[in-house]
Structure to design on (289 residues):
């Protein structure tokens, strides 16, 4: 039996106009596929031969084809049967409800390609009827009606490519405000309201990695309350970033110089996020400035 990864090297994506083929094409590019848009059906066998003979340096390929290609409806069924004799290929058919498709066309103010001078709904229904035979040939049918672009990308990754959903990764940076806020931060938290070890002679030359500085910051009045609120907010926000397709969240924690309080708080946040199942990387940008 061939592996799923091997069988996924050649994909053909088709479906109803407005069903999300452009989004899927871009998603597949992100996953390392070379995507070709609307190659005429008659040319697909020649392309497959070149690919199989390794005359094109492409490992994984996805063809996106639909009714914009004039002879798609008449040529594609036989072409698909022909190339399937040569190599494993999966046909992905995208669709959506009439209501969802009409809404998408109205939002973009575009006519339906099958009925440019008639109501959109008429074009949607006509295309659905004409593509019924090709839909029956599909290995996978994906209804995109209730999906945003990020959810559709997840469906492609998990259902079509059989990839596991990536865990959210948090990139934590401690910094000093006097050196500037990290420009790529999604969230910035200010630890300057906490007591400053800099004004303790025995701690001034140490940094937040030192046990004595850590003890001072964590046992100072207000720190535990600060951390509780910080954890509560981050626990609420980070999953929502992930829900919008953002798999990496940049979180910055600052104090005056970036050596004491921000380092301690960032390390506490790192431990909290890691315990919650989040992948975490941490950088102490100004620790030695």
């Amino acid at each position: 039996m061939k592996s799923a990864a091997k069988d996924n090297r050649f994909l053909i994506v088709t479906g109803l106009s407005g069903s999300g083929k452009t989004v899927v094409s871009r998603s597949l590019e992100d996953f390392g596929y070379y995507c070709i848009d609307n190659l005429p059906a008659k040319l697909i066998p020649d392309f497959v031969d070149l690919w199989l003979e390794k005359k094109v340096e492409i490992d994984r390929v996805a063809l996106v084809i639909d009714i914009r290609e004039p002879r798609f409806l008449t040529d594609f069924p036989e072409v698909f049967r022909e190339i399937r004799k040569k190599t494993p290929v999966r046909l992905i058919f995208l669709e959506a409800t009439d209501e969802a498709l009409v809404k998408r066309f109205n939002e973009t103010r575009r006519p339906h390609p099958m009925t440019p001078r008639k109501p959109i709904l008429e074009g949607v229904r006509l295309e659905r009827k004409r593509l019924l035979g090709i839909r029956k040939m599909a290995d996978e049918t994906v209804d995109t009606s209730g999906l945003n672009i990020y959810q559709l990308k997840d469906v492609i990754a998990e259902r079509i490519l059989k990839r596991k959903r990536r865990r959210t990764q948090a990139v934590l940076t401690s910094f000093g405000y006097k050196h500037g806020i990290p420009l790529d931060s999604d969230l910035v938290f200010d630890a300057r309201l906490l007591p400053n070890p800099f004004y303790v002679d025995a701690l001034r030359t140490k940094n937040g990695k030192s046990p004595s500085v850590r003890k001072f910051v964590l046992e100072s009045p207000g720190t535990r309350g600060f951390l509780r609120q910080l954890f509560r907010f981050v626990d609420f926000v980070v999953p929502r970033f992930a829900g919008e397709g953002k798999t990496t969240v940049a979180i910055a924690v600052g104090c005056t110089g970036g050596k004491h309080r921000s380092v301690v708080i960032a390390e506490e946040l790192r431990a909290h996020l890691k315990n919650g199942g989040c992948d975490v990387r941490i950088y102490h940008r100004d620790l030695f400035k």
